[in-house]
């Protein structure tokens, strides 16, 4: 296992203490000097570097684990796996749907579009530049997603994206990307989240679900998003959580 370390929330570099890593695995930091330009241009450059590291890790015979500050980095993960000759599905653990489009989002927050980008929405923004092939809807499983905006709920009702609770994850066939947003865990157990959501599953339940998915032997990459505010006093607690999610 190799850890691809991407300490960014969107294009903003986060302090290392924000996503603390205590692991014996080899760590590959992705901390480039991002180019001048708009947010999409800067993020595309970042995700291209992530894709390079993921591809290299796979070709070394490893299963990459990507740590980042948001869910958008998943585009770099998908791109890198496809470049390495893997055609994965995605299992997306998240308190939110992340299935907005540029047109449906009232806030314009790109992180809330992350899964939908993988499915081909607004492909001209990132997909064309990165060169990833969009996933068919029936190759995506959305786990938990207890906080949906009306436009997201409407999309999911009509789509082929499978939805399921943490205690009953239904997996697609073939190799799997497992994406975990830390906010899938009930907000009472994860302090200082950027977008906290209560009434969620416990950390124990999420970890049990992840162990069951990993036990299939079909996980080809993990993508763990830590969208929380920097807080040095929480470094030890967060290091423990990150370590448990990495497994």
From TrEMBL:
- Highest rank taxon of the organism: Bacteria
Keyword Metal-binding, does the record have it?
A: yes
Keywords noted in UniProt: Hydrolase, Manganese, Metal-binding
Keyword Nucleus: yes or no? no
Query: What is the organism of origin for this protein?
Result: Kibdelosporangium aridum
The protein's matches in Pfam families, at most eight in alphabetical order, are given as: Arginase (PF00491)
Family statement drawn from the similarity comment of this UniProt entry = Belongs to the arginase family.
Give the molecular function GO annotations. arginase activity; manganese ion binding
Q: Which GO terms describe its cellular component?
A: cytoplasm
Q: What is this protein called?
A: Arginase family protein
């Amino acid at each position: 296992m190799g850890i691809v370390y991407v300490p960014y929330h969107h294009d903003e570099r986060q302090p290392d203490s924000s996503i603390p890593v205590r692991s014996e695995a080899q760590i590959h930091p992705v901390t480039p000097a991002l180019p001048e330009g708009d947010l999409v241009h800067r993020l595309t450059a970042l995700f291209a570097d992530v894709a390079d590291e993921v591809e290299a890790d796979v070709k070394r015979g490893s299963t990459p684990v990507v740590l980042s500050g948001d869910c958008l980095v998943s585009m770099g993960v998908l791109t890198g796996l496809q470049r390495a000759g893997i055609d994965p599905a995605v299992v997306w653990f998240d308190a939110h749907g992340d299935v907005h489009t540029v047109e449906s989002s009232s806030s314009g927050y790109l992180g809330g579009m992350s899964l939908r980008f993988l499915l081909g929405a607004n492909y001209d923004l990132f997909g064309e530049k990165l060169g990833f092939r969009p996933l068919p809807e029936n190759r995506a499983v959305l786990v938990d997603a207890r906080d949906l905006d009306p436009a997201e709920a409407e999309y999911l009702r009509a789509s082929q994206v499978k939805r399921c609770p943490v205690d009953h994850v239904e997996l697609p066939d073939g190799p799997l990307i497992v994406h975990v947003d830390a906010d899938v865990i009930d907000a009472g157990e994860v302090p200082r989240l950027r977008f906290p959501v209560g009434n969620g599953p416990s950390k124990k339940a999420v970890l049990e679900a992840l162990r069951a998915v990993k036990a299939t032997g079909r996980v080809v990459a993990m993508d763990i998003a830590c969208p929380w505010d920097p807080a040095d006093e929480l470094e030890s607690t967060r290091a423990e959580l990150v370590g448990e999610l990495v497994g």
